[in-house]
């Protein structure tokens, strides 16, 4: 009887499970009410615009949208167009190289700055400064630097190296790498700062223990520090990938997609067809493919980040 009374008493003092969800819903009620306009804007403008674009990618819209559905005709035409295929190849080359070099160079620079060197603030400012520039300015600057008439090639030839040749923007086979140089120059500084923040968050006792055990510094970085910085690398990966997919203004400022279509990218293809070619259906189809590429990156990242935290 005492056990039953005690059990009854415990049951009487604890709130029913159904009371917990309403309390959670009413928590921070003022902040939730204030966020309603932004949520509605996101749903109507961003989500609504996305759905509208996807739906009209299956139509024969030209200068103006029209609900004349043609199935997958726009997508079939898209993937049979040489210009689109080349833009995808260029984006794949640029994206893979940018991803690898940005992470490697950014981490190496951060590791060097993490050694408490003199004038660290000055070096950090210099390396991060290009990120403050717009892609238009970056593209124009590197267009001048890589110009064979008065750029890097002209300067080195003026020093006596008459046979030196470096004009990637005028060679269709390697023109995309000229774009890559400018992109790395601008974006690596941000990755360096992210990596440096991650390194500064590592407990110093780990380094002391590795020195006591005689572990080389490169092994400590590779097998201990890098796995501990997994969230930083995932954040950097998402930032780099989003910048890769929307690559447009750097190409327009530096090469205009040339020579020929050697540096064509999907974002420029979309802009040219929607505004220059007055073919909204084709532009919508290309935009949908770009959206799909972003979703392929963002959804796994969200599952890794938020799904792992929820399980934890």
Automatic annotation (TrEMBL):
Region Disordered: start-end pairs: 1-21
Gene3D superfamilies listed in its UniProt record: MetI-like
Highest taxon, organism lineage: Bacteria
Residues covered by the ABC transmembrane type-1 domain: 88-303
Keyword Transferase: no
Low complexity composition-biased segments: 1-13
Record-linked PROSITE patterns: ABC_TM1 (PS50928)
Membrane topology recorded in Swiss-Prot or TrEMBL: Multi-pass membrane protein
GO biological process: transmembrane transport
Record-linked InterPro entries: ABC_transporter_permease, MetI-like, MetI-like_sf
Localization of this protein: Cell membrane
Record keywords: Cell membrane, Membrane, Transmembrane, Transmembrane helix, Transport
Membrane-spanning intervals of the chain: 33-55, 91-113, 125-145, 174-199, 220-245, 284-304
GO cellular component: plasma membrane
Family: Belongs to the binding-protein-dependent transport system permease family.
Full protein name: Sugar ABC transporter permease
């Amino acid at each position: 009887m005492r056990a039953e009374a005690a059990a009854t008493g415990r049951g009487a003092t604890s709130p029913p499970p159904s009371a917990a969800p309403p309390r959670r819903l009413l928590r921070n009620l003022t902040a939730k009410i204030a966020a309603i306009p932004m949520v509605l804007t996101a749903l109507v403008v961003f989500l609504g615009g996305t759905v509208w674009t996807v739906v009209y990618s299956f139509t024969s819209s030209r200068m103006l949208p029209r609900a004349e559905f043609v199935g997958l005709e726009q997508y079939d035409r898209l993937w049979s167009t040489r210009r689109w295929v080349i833009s995808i190849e260029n984006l794949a080359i640029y994206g893979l190289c940018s991803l690898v070099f940005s992470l490697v160079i950014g981490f190496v620079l951060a590791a060097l700055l993490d050694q408490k060197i003199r004038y660290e603030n000055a070096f950090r400012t210099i390396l991060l400064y290009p990120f403050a520039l717009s892609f238009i300015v970056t593209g124009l600057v590197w267009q001048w630097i890589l110009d064979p008439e008065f750029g890097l090639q002209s300067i080195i030839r003026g020093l006596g190296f008459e046979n030196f040749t470096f004009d990637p923007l005028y060679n269709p086979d390697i023109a995309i790498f000229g774009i890559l140089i400018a992109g790395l120059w601008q974006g690596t500084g941000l990755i360096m700062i992210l990596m440096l923040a991650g390194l500064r968050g590592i407990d110093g006792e780990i380094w002391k223990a590795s020195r006591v055990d005689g572990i080389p510094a490169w092994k400590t970085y590779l097998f201990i520090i890098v796995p501990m910085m997994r969230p930083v690398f995932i954040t950097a990966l998402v930032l780099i990938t989003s910048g890769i997919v929307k690559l447009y203004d750097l190409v327009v400022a530096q090469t205009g997609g040339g020579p020929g279509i050697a540096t064509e990218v999907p974002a420029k293809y979309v802009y040219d067809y929607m505004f220059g070619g007055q073919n909204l259906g084709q532009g919508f189809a290309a935009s949908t493919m770009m959206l799909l590429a972003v979703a392929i990156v963002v959804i796994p990242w969200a599952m890794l980040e938020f799904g792992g935290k929820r399980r934890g």
